[in-house]
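# nightly structure sweep
# worker-07 picked up a monomer target from the shared queue
# config: single-sequence mode, recycle default, output format = structure tokens
# input follows
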Amino acid sequence: MKKKNTAQVPWDLSIEDEKYKEEPWILKKGKEHVTIERNKHERGKFHLQKDEERKLSLTALQARLTYHQLIEFGYKLRK
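# output follows
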């Protein structure tokens, strides 16, 4: 059974945190990039968009798991 990754994601941090980054959060790998941002119309939901593809609406859990998967796949959070 695979262990769930419960490490923090950027949207867990507040402005006082050392690693705080404003949204949108952009993960890059080579020329590819994935953008994650809060859905301003539906509380607790997120939008995810890869390059110029259409936006996907995700729950908070889906966004968290996807973020950690992207990190495992070699994506890095843009500074």
